[in-house]
UniProtKB/TrEMBL annotation:
Residues 305-318 have a biased composition (Basic and acidic residues). This is Arginine deiminase-related protein. Transmembrane segments: none annotated. It holds the Pfam family DDAH_eukar. Residues 305-329 are annotated as: Disordered. The lineage of its organism: Bacteria, Bacillati, Actinomycetota, Actinomycetes, Micrococcales. InterPro entries: Amdntrnsf_FN0238. It comes from the Bacteria.
Amino acid sequence: MSVQAPSAVVMVRPHRFRPNEATLADNGFQTDAEGLDLARVAASAFDEVSRAADALDAAGVTVHLFDDERDDRPDSVFPNNWISTHSGGHVALYPMFTPNRRLERRGDIVEFLKAQYRVQDVIDYSGLEYDDVFLEGTGAMVLDHEYRIAYATRSNRADPLALERFCTNFGYEPMVFDASDARSIPIYHTNVMMAVATEFALVCLDAIASPVRRIEVADRLAGRGRRAVIALTTSQLDEFCGNTVELEARDGRVLALSRRAHDALTADQRALIERSARLLPLDVPTIELAGGSVRCMLAGVHLDPRPQRAPEHERSMAGREAAPVQMPG
């Protein structure tokens, strides 16, 4: 099992999805909702999440799927921004930049994780919102769990103070940089430009403003055991090629990504990835209208599962079967 690739994910299936008008100003990947048939958009998004969950389940990834019927949480399909989980039984809740995104934090999901997995503590950073300090989870940060590095591009969604506090609590080294797309729009979330897997990394180095920092990021991503650092072009950045996530499936690791991202990768890039992870493309074109893709849709579960208790009658039988045996003589 790879420390980088979780074998379970949390997903949220929205019933009232739409591109969030409140996030359009600083999300250069988002489509303006004006003129869209929002009822049709919501229905398509519901179906896309359902099919994506089915595809992950068929691959052998455990999917914890929660429904969201509220109409005031347009981005609830992206739970990785408000919650992350970590080995050792730790859960983090994050401060969100946009007020209507703060409604996405759900106590029922946290309680479910406590019941199903060994959770030692929940560290809640959401109070930082009152100080206008924000850190939108594993959207704002891309975590290298093996080498303990938190990569983050400066933005409204990633305050250095909150990042430093997270890194101190969880034992990561922060690596911060400035990054923009081909239109010189600052990258709003680090996970749209890079992804770290067990044996490779994907990154749009051209988006990083400082040439020195580009080299430093590439060197750190290479690590000691990573086979390849795959450089993405700014055109591939626009196609969400960086917004991918490695998962542990039934027959080995997979790289979950959108069909759009898959088709934008070159044959050589796909071959490098498939040395260690099977490509698992998911069709989510409606979800991508909101400026995020597959990585944003999946909150990885890096927790140890609790042993499942058998029904009462089975526990009673097990207790009798486990009684000491009296040996003759």
